[in-house]
Design brief:
Elements (H helix, E strand, L loop, with lengths): L5 H18 L4 H26 L3 H30 L14 H14 L61 H27 L1
Helix pairs in contact: 1-2, 2-3, 2-5, 3-5
């Protein structure tokens, strides 16, 4: 899919053929789902590779976001293929979880120590997590406190502006090649969602 030379294209075709043989579709529907799965896998690997080679955080996050979307779509197609092969049968397992007294005591101690959500901290159990500085209205500030006990508006630590001129950074997110790549990945995602949705409708 995302290849540039004849040698890479031949390798991609051979790899896709091996994956298709591994999935072993037995009818037309399985062949379509398998083809979408192979395309999504290639898109995921390509997005992850682009994220690893990204020159800045903007492009890295953009490619990681696309890789996450293609991965989720791949899982939905795997589930659709499994439902198709099982004939739409579903297995539901209901289990009961019991929390014993010792675990409840540990959980209560953790909440009191780390979140201030216990029942014995006074009228307002979350008070020690609040700023408490006097506002213009005379009431205590309800903002979350920083490590020094005050919120960011009443004396909390402020690292200041980031170093370097990030506003002038040319990250490449809106370059023509990046937009074309994103459009191709989104096209594959739409086809995969349509295939998975059609399986849900049929069942």
């Amino acid at each position: 899919m995302f290849v540039s030379t004849a040698e890479e294209e031949d390798g991609a075709v051979a790899s896709a053929a091996l994956r298709m043989a591994g999935i072993a579709p037995v009818d037309t529907v399985e062949e379509m789902l398998a083809a979408q799965m192979i395309a999504l896998h290639g898109a995921t690997i390509d997005c992850a590779s682009r994220a690893a080679r990204a020159a800045n955080d903007v492009m890295r996050n953009e490619n990681l976001r696309l890789a996450s979307k293609t991965s989720r779509a791949f899982v939905s197609l795997v589930e659709a293929l499994d439902r198709h092969r099982r004939g739409g049968e579903q297995k539901v397992t209901v289990e009961h979880v019991h929390v014993h007294a010792g675990a409840k005591q540990l959980w209560g101690a953790y909440r009191r120590a780390h979140r201030g959500l216990g029942k014995n901290e006074g009228d307002n159990p979350m008070a020690h997590n609040m700023c408490g500085a006097k506002t213009r209205r005379g009431s205590p500030c309800q903002g979350w406190s920083m490590p020094n006990g005050r919120c960011r508006m009443h004396g909390g630590t402020n690292p200041g502006a980031p170093k370097g001129n990030q506003n002038a950074l040319k990250h490449g997110r809106y370059a023509a090649s990046t937009i074309a790549f994103r459009a191709e990945v989104n096209k594959i995602l739409r086809r995969a969602r349509d295939a998975a949705r059609s399986q849900n409708v049929e069942r």
